[in-house]
């Protein structure tokens, strides 16, 4: 048997027990893929990360991301949380950090994380760049997505758009906050949608959203086929949504900022801050930022 240190943080919040919890194993050398999957299933958070030395010495770490059911090529809150944990525990960093910038090697590509600090040196926020350019894949009829979240066709404004900035999600615009609050996943409808409108990277997950007059985007994310009934904060889906909203913006050259409020209905309110960089009408990059709160440190025996 061997002991592995771990730490947990609540991500995309400045309040303990808010946001999305994440477990980080900062020295995962020696763990097999099967063991990582079993640990993630035991922890049972939406994601758990495992940090090992980088393959390229110019980078900071290789980061593996597991849900309770499978490995992901990229996800937002695991990257923000992992960067926060490593920034607060420099002895856990296996590779190179330059001016508080980290480079994580992941299946979806290289992920750049930038740590911001207060004058006293304490970490104040972490910002990551999505590893891929925003792109749209296909649409899903609203008559198919509405039953997935137990809404009527009238409560869904248009056909859903499947989009990605590293991981694909179906993005569903609902008519109002009442529709957003009343939504709940229907497994049979999700299975039908996945069979007929799915994508190879993972089973269909949906972010439903409503943009208020204040500009704040209120969102919920359901991924029951991936073992996530509802997620309190989903950075990768938020990045895809920011890219979609920015692509509809009439400005040709701009840095367009968005604030996404998620997790309220779960009692874990989250704030995700995004910026889409638009050049000549094209989305060049999407950044994802937020705060974290440390919660647990301990050892896990394998």
The gist of it:
The protein has six helices and 18 strands. The protein has 302 residues and is α+β, with helices and mostly antiparallel strands. It has two domains: 3-129 and 291-301, Diaminopimelate Epimerase, Chain A, domain 1 (Roll), CATH 3.10.310.10; 135-288, Diaminopimelate Epimerase, Chain A, domain 1.
The end-to-end span amounts to 5 Å
Report the radius of gyration as a whole number of Å. Answer: 18 Å
The SSE order reads EEHEEEHEEEEHEEHHEEEHEEEE
Structural class: alpha+beta
Globular, elongated, flat, extended or rod-shaped: what is the shape? Answer: globular
**What is the number of independent domains?**
2
> How many beta strands in the DSSP annotation?
18
Q: Can you identify the CATH class of the largest domain?
A: Alpha Beta
Number of helices: 6
Runs in which pLDDT lies below 50 for 5 or more consecutive residues are none
Largest sheet: 18 strands, mixed
CATH topology call of the largest domain: Diaminopimelate Epimerase, Chain A, domain 1
Q: How confident overall, as mean pLDDT?
A: 96
User: What CATH architecture of the largest domain do you see?
Assistant: Roll
CATH evolutionary superfamily of the largest domain: Diaminopimelate Epimerase, Chain A, domain 1
In terms of DSSP E residues, the strand content is 35-45%
**What share of residues is helical?**
10-25%
């Amino acid at each position: 048997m061997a002991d592995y240190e771990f730490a947990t943080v609540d991500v995309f919040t400045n309040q303990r027990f808010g946001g999305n919890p994440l477990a980080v194993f900062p020295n995962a050398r020696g763990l097999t893929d099967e063991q990582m999957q079993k640990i993630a299933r035991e922890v049972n958070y939406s994601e758990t990360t495992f940090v090992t030395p980088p393959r390229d010495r110019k980078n900071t770490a290789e980061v593996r991301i597991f849900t309770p059911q499978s490995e992901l090529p990229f996800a937002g809150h695991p990257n923000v949380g992992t960067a926060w944990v490593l920034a607060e525990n420099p002895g856990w960093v296996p590779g190179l950090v330059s001016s508080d910038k980290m480079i994580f090697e992941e299946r979806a590509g290289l992920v750049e994380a930038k740590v911001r600090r207060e004058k006293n040196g304490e970490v104040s926020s972490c910002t990551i760049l999505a590893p891929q350019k925003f792109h749209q894949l296909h649409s899903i009829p609203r008559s198919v997505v509405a039953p997935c979240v137990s809404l009527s066709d009238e409560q869904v404004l248009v056909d859903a758009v499947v989009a990605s900035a590293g991981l694909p999600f179906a993005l569903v615009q609902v008519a109002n906050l009442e529709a957003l609050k009343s939504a709940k996943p229907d497994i049979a409808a999700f299975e039908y949608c996945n069979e007929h409108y799915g994508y190879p990277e993972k089973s269909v997950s949906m972010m439903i959203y409503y943009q208020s007059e204040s500009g704040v985007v209120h969102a919920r994310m359901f991924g029951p086929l991936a073992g996530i009934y509802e997620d309190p904060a989903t950075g990768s889906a938020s990045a895809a949504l920011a890219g979609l909203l920015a692509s509809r913006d009439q400005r040709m050259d701009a840095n367009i900022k968005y604030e996404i409020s998620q997790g309220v209905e779960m009692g874990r309110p989250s704030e995700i801050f995004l910026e889409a960089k638009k050049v000549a009408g094209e989305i060049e990059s999407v950044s994802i930022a937020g705060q974290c709160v440390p919660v647990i440190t301990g050892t896990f025996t394998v």
